[in-house]
């Protein structure tokens, strides 16, 4: 059975007009999970019976004329650091053994209100502290297109579930790129909303000042629907695409385009050529302190993560995977004065991104410097050197967690081996809907996503 | 605390806690900290207009 690649927009239309039943969509996803999850390992918890009940409820409500909105009856997966009442939140860690969530996270309550069917909890890099999902108490997630590769992370199970047809959308978290990186690696759309737009209560934190929650979907329109639900709108209006002709986008070439895989670079330039032919006006912009991005990020995320985990590191260090434990321990050595310097740098970088956006509709750059990385390989060869996978995968995304600007990953073709390439569009603060409108307009020109 | 002194203390503490695997990570972190301290947004109490110098700290 091939993966169902229909979008929420398509499925919802058929559900509302009774040409399709939610139960049928859920059964199709469950069949896919039964057939493929043993190898792909996207899900930690599958709520098969509960999802069937929720789908039946949705079918009854829709038949009775009580259609709630575009997510009504749509199977959505949740990254397993988001609390769902009565279900374990494992964070892919033995540290969480025996945990069962007492309450829904606000975002889960909002998804329920929108009528989504919560089909299960997805695998991730332990405590969201990594970009490959290899360090998980439940084992690594395999890329649905190539079992030797990672789907990216830390929301890797989420992306794999959507790409493989096990769910129609997923909700993940993004502290340095953990929505955009797997979306890019899997040829999907991944939205990191602006900082603070979507509440994080009931979600296991990684970095209290940089955590974001957002959707991984098959289209920009779908990301708009899930984003609307996460913001509390059960029936959000479809995002109207912006006008492409005359759209002004800045490209931060220095640093961001200086260390790219050759095929990623070529794919990005081809997408830019198509967009320019469609009428987008490009110019180059600068982020003068780009060299300091990674140091600022590290000196924020490491101590913030360490503060949350300090007690457990003392009491149950052996329950962490070795790599995550050692990185958490590293954060305990950062001095307060260096955390303050990083906070000062955060203000500088935020101002620089604001300046780069001034007079423009957005910034455009690749989402991920390399195609999906190989499982078990700690480094990737790029620019004549071996770069740590963690560093190269975070390189293009972490800035916008520091600054809080909304950013979205959109597919823009594939390598010769069929691995997805992705562009990243960055918008103005507090204007995520405008970002979605711009992304929706660019999507047809960017290039195709992945298909199973 | 200078970066050199910080690194010495951190490695000694990590090794006393049986965390020898931290050493290469702390060494890499010290390079990152040097870049952070060398950034031109850092001010100097003796002269607020003067930028920091990682080598002097």
List the helices and strands and how they pair.
The complex is a heterodimer of chains A (452) and B (57).
Chain A: H1 8-16, H2 22-40, E1 43-46, H3 48-63, E2 75-79, H4 106-113, E3 117-122, H5 156-163, E4 169-174, H6 180-185, E5 189-192, E6 212-217, H7 220-230, E7 248-251, H8 253-256, H9 262-277, E8 281-284, H10 293-316, H11 322-331, H12 336-357, E9 362-366, E10 379-382, E11 385-388, H13 389-394, H14 399-403, E12 407-414, E13 420-426, H15 432-446
Parallel strand pairs in A: 2-3, 2-4, 7-8, 7-9
Antiparallel strand pairs in A: 1-3, 4-6, 5-6, 5-12, 9-13, 10-11, 12-13
Helix pairs in contact in A: 2-3, 7-15, 10-11, 10-12
Chain B: H1 3-16, H2 22-38, E1 43-44, E2 47-51
Antiparallel strand pairs in B: 1-2
Helix pairs in contact in B: 1-2
Question: Would you give an account of this structure?
Answer:
The complex is a heterodimer of chains A (452) and B (57). Chain A is α/β, with parallel strands linked by helices. Chain A has two domains: 8-230, Amidase signature (AS) enzymes (Alpha-Beta Complex); 248-292 and 335-446, Amidase signature (AS) enzymes. Chain A contains 15 helices and 13 strands. Chain A has an eleven-stranded mixed sheet with strand order 1-3-2-4-6-5-12-13-9-7-8, with helices on both faces. In chain A, strands 10-11 form a two-stranded antiparallel sheet. The termini of chain A are close together. The relative contact order of chain A is 0.14. Chain B has helices at 3-16, 22-38, and strands at residues 43-44, 47-51. Chain B has a domain at 1-39. In chain B, helix 1 runs antiparallel to helix 2 (22-38). By secondary structure, chain B is of the alpha+beta class. Chain B has a two-stranded antiparallel ribbon with strand order 1-2. In chain B, strand 1 (43-44) and strand 2 (47-51) form a beta hairpin.
